[in-house]
What we know:
This protein has helices at about 20-30, 50-55, 80-85, 105-115, 140-155, 195-205, 215-225, 245-250, 275, 295-305, 315-330, 335-345; strands at about 5-15, 35-40, 60-65, 80, 90-95, 100-105, 185-190, 210-215, 235-240, 255, 285-290, 310. By secondary structure, it is α/β, with parallel strands linked by helices. α7 (about 215-225) links the parallel β8 (about 210-215) and β9 (about 235-240).
Amino acid sequence: MIKGTTKLLGVIGHPIAHSLSPVMHNAAISHLGVDFVYLPFPVKPEDLKAALAGFAAIDLRGFSITIPHKQAILPLLAEVSPIARAIGAVNTVYRTDKGWCGTNTDVEGFLAPLLTLPTPPCQEPNSPPPTPPCQGGEQEASYTLEISNRVVESCPPPYQEGALESCPPPYQGGARGGSDWSQKVAVILGNGGAARAVVAGCAQLGFAEIHVVGRNAPNLAEFQQSWVNSPMPMQNLQVHTWDNLSMLISQADLLVNTTPVGMHPHGEKSPVAAAALDRISAGAIVYDLIYTPNPTQLLKDAQLRGAIPIDGLEMLVQQGAAALKIWLDTEYVPVDVMRQALRQHLGLD
C-alpha cells in the first residue's frame, strides 16, 4: 500500500508502457516488506534534464533507464562508474551527496547465467557432450564477487587419481566448457548499446577473441574505434560485416544475439540462417538477449543442433537485482521472486 512515507523508485524511457521492470521490482519490494514503490515514468528526450531536477525535488531514490536515454543521460550526471563509462551507457541511477550518479548493471546481468551454468554429471563413454561445468574467469570483484563465490563453492574438487574411473575430469570439450575462458571465442550479433555491455562482459571473462558482427561497415568501424580510449580498451576485439557470419559461427564457443530480430510479434524470425547455424559446434553456448517469445526461434534452432541455449530473461532479472541492491543498500534481494513474477506475467508457467 502506497502511503505518504513511501519512497519512490522508477524507470524512465520513451515509450515506457512496455517495461517489465515494475513487475519484478514491485514483487521484490512486496516480498521484502519495505516502504518503497517502483513506477514507470514516460520522459521525452527533450525533457530529460527537467525530469532529473523534478526527481530530485520529490526525493526519488533511484531509477532505471531504458531507450532512448542510456547515453544521453551521461553528461547530466554528477558521477559515472568506470564500467558505465567503458560501455558508454548508464542503466541505473542513484542519489548520493554529490547528486545523481550512474552505473551499468547490464554487464552483471549478462554474466550471471554464464557464471552459473550447471556442473556436468559423469559421462559414459561415447555419450553426448555434457553441459559445461561451473564458469569463472577474470572479473572485477566489485561486479561479480558474490556470483563468483557461489559458483566456486558449487564446483566439484579437481579430479583426483584413484577416484571413480568412470568419472572423467571436469569436461573441457576442446574449446568448450571449463572455468578458463581465455582460449575461447565470442561472436556477438549487433553493434548497439546492448552489444557494448556484452563486449565488456566477454572482456571481463577473458575471452581470447571477441568478434562483433553488424550490417553497416561505417557503424562497425565507429564501434571498434570507440573502445580505443575507453577505460576498458579492447585488444582482441574485431568487427565484421554479416557476410562473414557463417565462418565465425564455426569458431564460436559463445554466440550472442543483441539484435531485435526474433522479438515478439515476429517470433518466427531468427537473426541467423539455418545454413549458417548448422556450423555451430555441439556444446557451444547460444545466448539470445530477447526474452519474448521464450524460447526464441534462434534458441530452438540452436538446441536442435546440440548447443546450450540461454534466454534474456535471466539477464533482465539479474541486472534488476543488482540495481535494487544499490537502491535499498542491501546485499540480499529475492531474485527467485523477481524471476517468478516475470515468468507468470509472461505466461511461461
